[in-house]
Every structure is written in C-alpha cells, then in structure tokens.
Specification:
The structure is a single chain. The protein is an all-alpha fold and 676 residues long. Among the domains are: 183 residues; 129 residues, no CATH class; 96 residues, no CATH class. 67% of the residues lie in helices and 2% in strands. The chain contains 31 helices and two strands. It has a two-stranded antiparallel sheet with strand order 1-2. Helix 18 runs antiparallel to helix 19 and helix 24 runs antiparallel to helix 25. The longest helix is centred in the first third of the chain and has 33 residues. The N and C termini lie far apart (106 Å). The relative contact order is 0.06.
Length: 676
C-alpha cells in the first residue's frame, strides 16, 4: 500500500474515532448542562430587545457577541454612562443567565453607581433595592449554587445599607426596619418568661416555626383553619384586596402588603389606644372596610392569625426569596436575628451561599469557590449585630429609630469563628478535622487579630454597662484563646491586669474611636452603665463617671467624623450613627431602656435622672406612644396610676420638653408623616 493511502486511512480512522467520541461527550455535556441549568436562551418572547434577538440568531457565535457586549458595557461603566451600561448588562443576562459575573456587575451599578447619582434618599433607596432584587430574584435563582452572587448580595446589605459610607445610610436603615416590621411584625421582647439568651433565641425562632407550619396554599389554609375562607372573601368583596392572586407590587402596594401594613397599624394603634380612623387619616389611608373585616368580633382570632401568617409566608418565599425553615435554623444557630436589621440579611445570604456552595465542591473545583471571603461576611454580620442589633423602632415615626449594642451576639461570635476557621482549614487541606491555626505561623493571623479586637471592644462595653461578670468571662476567653496572636506583647501584659485597670488601659491606648460602630458602642455602653449601674442602683458616682465618659467620647467622635454634604444637609450625616446633640442621644437611650425595662424599673431610672434629662425623655416617651399605652392600662383598672404618676414631668422644664417634641415632629414631617 502506498504511503499516501496509509496516511489517508489513518486520517479517516482518526476522524471516525473523534466523531464517535464527540457524540458521546456531547451527550454527557448536554446532560450535565441540563442538570446544572447552564443552557443558553434560545427562544424569543414578545417585546424582546433587538440585541437579544441578534444574539440568539447568531447561534454558535453567540459567545463572541456576548464578549463584545461585555467589553462595551465595561467601557460604558468606566466612562460614567451607568444607565447605558445597565441596559447592556440586562442584555447579557438574558443571553447568558448562567454568567454570575455579569449579575454582580449589573447589581453593583444599580446599588452603588446609579444610586449615588440621584439627589434624594428616597431615590437612592429605590436603586439600592433594585440591585438587591436583581441578585435575589433573578441572579441567584438562575445560579442557585454560586457563592459569588450570595457574597455580593450579603455585601450590599452589610456595606451599602448597614454601613456608613453612603450619605443616605440612615434613611436606608429606617426604611428596611419599616419594611420588615410589616413583613414579620416586631420581634419578641424580654419579659418575665424570656430572661436568658437561650429563651430569647427560642422565642425568635418560634415565630418563624409558626410560618413554617402555615399552609402553602389558600386551599389548604381554608381546610385547616375555620373562618379563613370567609375572611379572605370579605376582604376581596368589601376592601378590594384579592389574596388569591399576586400579593405584592414593586411599590409595596399589593393586597398582601396592604393587609400586613394594616395589621401592624392596628397592633400599634391598640397599644396606643387610638382609633384606626385617626391613624388612617394620618398615615396611608387604608380603607375602613378592611379594618372592619379584620376587626369584626365574629371572625375567629385563629382565622385572622391564619390569614396574616399565610400572607407573611408567601411574601417571604415569593417576594423576598427566603426560606422560613432556614431563617429559623440560622436563628437557633447564630442568635436572636432581628430581620429589621440589615446584618441579619447579610448573614442569611452569606451563610446560605456557603451552604449551597459546599454541596457542589469537589477535588477538581475546590479553587473555584470563594468560601473564605464569604465566611468573613458571616463574621462581619455577627459583629454588626453585636454592635447595633438591639433595635428600637416606632412604626408611626420612622425617625424614632435606634440601633444599640446587643451583647447576645458576643457568644455567637465566639462560637462562629471556631466553626468557620476550622471548616476553611478542611477545605484548604482536603482533610477532615484539620485545625485552622498552625502554631508555626501563629505570630499573626487575621482571624486572631479580629477575635482580639472584637472581644476587647465587648469587654469594654460590658464593663461600662455594669456587667462585670460577663466582662470577666470574656477576658478569660481571650486569655485562653488558642489562636491568640503572639506579636502583641503589650496586649498580653494588659490581660494580666485587674479588670478595672485593663479597661482603663484599653481606653487610654486605643486609637479606634474614629470607627463609627466602636464609638457608638463605647457611648451607649457608658450611658447604659450610667442608667443601670447608676440611676437604677442609686449609685450617683457611677452615674456621673459614666455620663462624663460618654459625653467626652461622643464629643471627640462628632468633631472628627460628622459633617454635612449636599445630599444629607438637614438630615443624618454619613457617619452620624448618633445624634450630634449628646443630650438628645442620651435621652434616646434612656427612653429605650425605660420602654424595655417597663414598670417599676423604668420609673426608678427616670425619677433618679437630672431634670433636663427627664424632660427630654418625657417628650420622647410621649410621642413614641408609651405614655398613651400606660394611660390606657390605667383606665382599664380602677385606681391604677397614670403615666404622669410613674413619670412626673419635671417642673420648669416645659421649654426643653417642647423643643424635644418639635425636633421629633420635624423628623416625622421629613418622612411624610402628618403630625396632629
């Protein structure tokens, strides 16, 4: 056989072998792509943009076309043409919905670049929400196991909403609190039956368990809960709220959202013993027929609760793409998560991303998953919940909003850091049971540094709050911490000091007072210690020393960090995590403690306070509705003391009280709340 013939025969045989192999591989690749939902868009719908139609028509050359669009979108972003870049990014997501980077690019433009180009906090909040919704509603469902998209969504909550880098961040926090007060209602509060951290966590999780047990469909609800069918029909025919269709709109005016808003207004109105008619005239104008339907004594309480819980569950699952079962599990694992706080959402999406990603990790793709930075967002979220996780929020006055330190999350941090660090060691080494720190490199690690800084802040806070036992406990924790860095000899020396000297040394030597959350933690810790260890305990020395410390720390922070810009002029400044007026902020903290402590501890603190502090606190308790609540309880019991008995207005302080009332009225007016 001639040489040419041999070459041709070999070539033909090779071609046939390769064709056979390609058939087998194509079948397997197609099956794998189908299971992973990695298929391209190959059908057109009415209204499809022309560029998407072009991309679909290009078939196998679509990848090149998308590359061109991606380069063009990035160039537009660099040129500051954000709206045009968003349009191109939308096109790319339609052509390649399984391309996570473009979803992240798109969401960043919406929440960061376009939002800051607008002029009002309301406009900015709409764009921030658009970025959140893009990832949550479209990007993650299209890429359910992608860690990057979960991390990006968690970052928007933690950095854009909960952080202080945006001049409108205070408005974001208030709007998020209002939104989730409607969705879930206010969380449980400590009382005679809820005293410990464990009891509080279980109370938080139990309300989510009720949603888990709620039927998924109206038909099932009607079968299981008598009276619900009649109530749903009455709301449809009398109020025009059809709960059998879509329950929400992008503007928050869907029938389900209106129902939950009315439910919260009724709850708040009953606390303040006001008529719903007065509330409606001042607030949203929700129709009276819906109120009558819900307030009808002939409707069983179980039916009302059943319909409300059904709507809550559907909004969680269908609109916010969150799972009540996972929310309850995370609450039991990480602590009493208040979903009015952006940190709770940041933690949820970061932790969910890690869990979903772990289901896909293997030896071949280990380096494709960014578990380290996503885990760090979980830790960051827990830190935020410690520093700001105790929320005081007035539904009728969104500006009556405070974020105070929540010591329940100190233990959450201690427990989480060990678990996360050890898991990351297992991922990095591929060996089960690997420990996160290596004694040979223990001189300095980022985990060790973060743990040290967090616990040092917590010890100072607990000490200023008057909880010496907890402060001593966590100082002992840091002393025996196996991952403690060895490079800071000064820290090791200070840990051997008595607790009082340790705290003094920390304050004297620490230069972190410029951090917004550290500053707030220091000031609030000192104020709470002044009120609890000073006023409540009758220790005037403790009151004065802690008030002086809080005032001086507040003064340093405000002078160095708080300033106005064109966007926030007349509103909270970007780093204004506390009122600029120390006396106003001190009254806010006392009012919050009084409402939390109730009677008799609340009146004891109030009556022991100086007259000017009493006056500001009295005005805040009045406008928050607490005064009306106490007076309403007194009316129901013959001879019961009124609010002014427990909290007598200080004599000669009427100008101070009126000035405080005017401050709060102005704050309400800025949020479009009519004040009567």
């Amino acid at each position: 056989m001639r040489r040419d013939s041999v070459v041709q025969a070999v070539a033909v045989a090779g071609m046939l072998a390769f064709l056979s192999g390609s058939v087998l591989l194509t079948t397997r690749v197609s099956a794998s792509a189908g299971r992973a939902k990695l298929s391209y868009t190959d059908t057109l719908e009415e209204g499809t943009p022309p560029m998407v139609a072009v991309g679909v028509a290009m078939g196998a050359f679509r990848g090149l076309f998308v590359n061109y669009l991606w380069i063009r979108a990035n160039n537009l972003k660099e040129e500051g043409k954000y709206h045009e870049a968003v349009d191109l990014a939308t096109t790319i997501t339609k052509l390649q919905p399984r391309f996570p980077r473009v979803w992240a690019f798109h969401a960043w433009n919406l929440s960061y670049n376009i939002s800051v180009a607008t002029q009002t906090p309301q406009e900015r909040w709409q764009w921030v929400q658009s970025g959140i919704a893009l990832l949550r509603d479209q990007g993650i469902p299209a890429n359910p196991g992608d860690v990057l998209l979960h991390k990006e969504l968690a970052w928007i909550f933690l950095h854009k909403v909960q952080g202080v880098m945006d001049d409108a961040n205070a408005f974001y926090k208030q709007e998020l609190a209002r939104q989730w007060t409607i969705v879930l209602g206010p969380p449980p509060r400590r009382d005679d039956t809820i005293r410990t951290r464990e009891q509080l966590i279980e109370a938080y999780a139990a309300r989510l368990d009720r949603l888990v047990a709620t039927p998924d469909t109206l038909e099932e609800l009607f079968r299981r809960v008598p009276g619900t069918a009649e109530l749903v029909e009455r709301l449809r025919t009398r109020a025009g709220w059809d709960l059998t269709g879509r329950l929400w709109t992008e503007l928050g005016t869907g029938p389900g959202e209106l129902l939950l808003t009315l439910n919260e207004e009724m709850r708040s109105a009953s606390r303040m013993q006001q008529t719903l008619k007065g509330v409606q005239a001042r607030r949203t104008g929700l129709n009276a027929a819906a109120y009558e339907a819900l307030n009808d004594p002939g409707v069983p309480l179980e039916a009302k609760a059943g319909v409300v819980n059904f709507v809550r569950k559907r909004l969680l699952v269908d609109r916010h793409k969150m799972e009540p079962e996972r929310m309850a599990r995370y609450t039991r694992k990480y602590g009493p998560l208040d979903w009015r706080h952006a940190g709770a959402h940041g933690l949820y999406w970061a932790a969910r991303g890690v869990e979903e990603g772990m289901l896909r990790i293997g030896e071949q793709n280990r380096d494709d998953f960014d578990f380290v930075n996503t885990d760090r967002l979980v830790m960051h979220a827990i830190q935020e919940l410690y520093r700001t996780g105790e929320i005081t929020f007035d539904f009728f006055n969104p500006r009556f909003f405070m974020q105070l330190p929540n010591p329940d999350f100190v233990q959450s941090y201690v427990e989480a850091i060990e678990e996360i660090a050890n898991r990351e060691a297992e991922i990095a080494t591929g060996r089960k049971g690997s420990k996160w720190y290596d004694p040979k490199t223990r001189l300095y690690t980022l985990y060790g540094a973060g743990f040290e800084n967090f616990l040092r802040d917590a010890i100072r806070f607990l000490y200023r709050r008057g909880d010496r036992e907890a402060a001593e406990h966590y100082r002992d924790v840091i002393v025996h911490y196996k991952g403690l860095n060895l490079n800071n000899q000064k820290l090791h020396e200070s840990l051997t000091l008595p607790l009082d000297e340790f705290v003094v040394a920390e304050v004297r030597d620490d230069d972190r007072f410029t951090s917004p959350e550290v500053a707030r933690s220091e000031v609030v810790g000192a104020l709470q210690a002044a009120y609890l260890s000073g006023l409540l305990a009758g220790n005037s020395t403790a009151f004065r020393s802690n008030m002086d410390y809080a005032r001086s720390f507040h003064k340093i922070y405000v002078e160095k960090q708080v300033f106005e810009t064109a966007v926030n002029r007349g509103r909270e400044a970007r780093l204004e995590v506390m009122d600029r007026d120390f006396d106003v902020y001190a009254a806010r903290v006392l009012a919050g403690l009084v409402q939390a402590a109730q009677i008799p501890d609340g009146p004891v603190m109030y009556q022991a306070a100086p007259a000017d502090l009493q006056a500001r606190t009295y005005a805040m308790l009045d406008l928050s509705g607490f005064k009306a609540e106490v007076d309403a309880l007194a009316q129901g019991q013959e001879g019961a003391p009124t609010f002014d008995h427990w909290f007598p207005p200080p004599q000669g302080m009427e100008p101070v009280m009126e000035a405080t009332r005017e401050y709060l009225r102005t704050a309400r007016a800025e949020h479009g709340v009519e004040v009567k």
